[in-house]
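The instructor's notes for this session suggest beginning with a concrete chain rather than abstract definitions. Hand out the sequence below and ask the class to guess, before any prediction is shown, which regions might be ordered.
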Amino acid sequence: MSRLSFSRRIALIFCLPFLAVSCQKPQRPPVDLAERNFPERIPAPRQAEENLSSEQTPLPAPNETAPDIWDVSDVDISTVDKTKKLISFTFDDAPSRTLENILAVFAAFNEQNPDCPANATVFFNGYLFDAHSTQTVHAAHALGFELGNHSQSHLDLTTLDEATLREELDKTDALLAKIDGKPKHLFRAPFGRANELVSQSVCTPVISWTIDTLDWTGLGEEDIYRSVWDGRFDGAIALMHDGYTNTVSALKRLLPDLKADGYQVVSVSQLAKAQGQTLRRGKTYGRIRKPNHAKTN
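After discussion, reveal the predicted structure:
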C-alpha cells in the first residue's frame, strides 16, 4: 500500500471523528475555515522579553542523570539535518481559529520537501478547548507538533498565589496528557511574565523567545515575515500566535525561504536535542545554540 501524503493524512485526521458519529446524527456540510464566525480575542499588551542568555549546558553522559534535567530522550530528531542552521517556530494562544490552517501549511510544505520537514511547538490555553478544537489538537500531535503549556486562563501568573498558579499549570497539563500521554509539558508564561514563584512552581523549562513577530497587534503579512527573516540565526526561537490569518500567510513564505537559506524549522525540544544542549527545569530559554557557538550572529 502506498504511503499517504501529508495532505491526505491531515484530511483523514480531521474527518475521522465526524465519520465515527455519522450514524448517530446528520453530518454537517463542510464549512470553509475562512467563513466561520470565530470570536475575536484581544490579548493584553505583551512585555518585551530580555532574558535571552539563560543557562545552557551540554548533554550529560549516557549514564548521568539529574533531577532538574528535562528529558528529551523520546524526542525524534531523525528528520533533523544537523548540518543546517536550526530555528524553532512557536505558536501561543492555541487552539484558536487558525490552527487548522497552520497545520495545513506545514503539511503541504513537508509533502513538497521531505528532505527538510518542518515542525513547531504550540503552546495551549486550557480554556480554549472544546469538542472541535480538541480534535485539532489531536491532529497537531498526529502530525508531530510538540504540545506546550500556556496556562489554563492566560492570566498574568505573577499576580497569583501559589495554589492558583499551580492550578493554572496542572489543568492544561492534564488536558494535553490526554492527547500525548505526557504528564508535563514545556511551559511558556502568558505575556512572558514570570517571577521567582512562577519559576519555582514550573517543573519544566520555561520557553521564552528571541524573535517577537508582534503578530497579535494586527501587523500585516510582510511585517511578520520581515521580523522572522531579519532576526533569524542558528538557535533562535520565534514567537507567533494562533488566531491571525496574516501569520498563516507569512508562514507560507517563511518555510520555503528559510530552507533556501540553509535553515530547518524545528520544535523547541528538537532544537535542544539536535544542538546538544540540556534544558533544565525552572530555567528560562530564549534561544538554544550549540555548545561553544561563535558569538558572531
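Then share the key points. Confidence is low (pLDDT under 50) at residues 15-65. The first helix runs from residue 6 to 20.
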